[in-house]
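Running co-folding for iron/sulfur cluster.
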Amino acid sequence: MSEWLLEVQGLKKYFPIAGGIFGRKIGEVKAVDDVSFYVKKGETLGIVGESGCGKSTTGRLLMRLIEASEGKVVFEDQEITRMSKSELRKVRRDIQMVFQDPYASLNPRHTVETILEEPLIVHGIGTKEERRKRVREMLEVVGLSSYHARRYPHQFSGGQRQRIGIAKALMTKPKLIIADEPVSALDVSIQAQVLNLMRDIQHEFQLTYIFIAHDLGVVRHISDRVGVMYLGRLIELSDAELLYDQPKHPYTKALLSAVPVPDPAMKRDRITLTGELPSPANPPSGCAFHTRCSLCIDICKIARPESVNLNGHSVACHLYNE
Ligand code: SF4
C-alpha cells in the first residue's frame, strides 16, 4: 500500500458555457485545470487562493460530489474517479467534508441529535442506542454537552454551529476530512478556537486534513504543506515552513505580503496585486498570472510555465530560479 492516503493526478473540471438561442456550447470555464498532488497519512495539506481559483471545486471533485472532466483521484489505492455508486457510498464513510457555512449544511428543522445521527443511518452503522451514544460522545469531543443534542441549529452561535458541523463529520470515523473555508465565516477570536479544536481532534483520531482557505494566515498554523492555486492551476506547493520563508512564485509572494507578521522587527514589503482576477472562462495566454505580475517578461505572455519540482518544492514560473 502506498504511503499516500490520497493521490490526485491531472485533475480537470471544465464547465460548459451555453449560449445562443439553441443553448449550444460556446465555451468552457476551466475551473480546475490539470491539478496534481498527494496527501500523506496524518498530515494537513492547505490549499489557498482567491475566490474563483478552483480550490472549492477541487475539494468537491475529490469526494466526487461533482464529476471530473479528466484525471484521477486515488484514495487508499482505490480510484474514486472510477467507482460505482455503491463503492463510492462505502468510501464516503472514510472521507467527510466540513463546510464554510454550517447553518446551510445543518437542517434547521431537525434537532442536533437527528442531524448527527443521519450519517450513521445512511451508512447503516449501529443500533439506535449505539448511534445516540456516539452523538453524545462526539458532542463532548467538540466541546459541547450531551444536553445540546435536543436543541436546534438556530439556538447556537456561529462557532458552536461549526463545532456541530465538525461533530457530524466525525460521526462515521473518517480518515480524511476536507474542510472548505471552515473558519472564514467566524469572528477572528472564534476562528482560533475552532482551529485549535481541529488540531486537537486530528491528533486524537489520527485524521488527515485538506484545509481549503483564501487566507494564507489561517492555513499557516494548521498545515504541514501548502498548495497555492491561481485560475484553476496549482502554481506552488511545498512544506508550509519553506513556503512561508522562501516563496518562489510571485503570486504566493504577493499573497504572503498581505499576511500580518507577529514579530514587528520582521518587516515584509507589501506587494500589491494590480488588476482583477481574470475570468476563468477567458484566462490570459501563457502564464495566467502575467496580467498582474510585476516580473512578467515576453515569454510569460506566450508559454505556460510547467511545474518544476525542486526537492519537494514545486513551482510553475519561468523565473523560478531568480
Ligand atoms: Fe510572473 Fe512570468 Fe512567473 Fe508568470 S511566469 S509568475 S508572469 S514571472
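Result summary
The chain has one domain: 4-94+174-315.
The chain has a mean pLDDT of 92.
Job closed.
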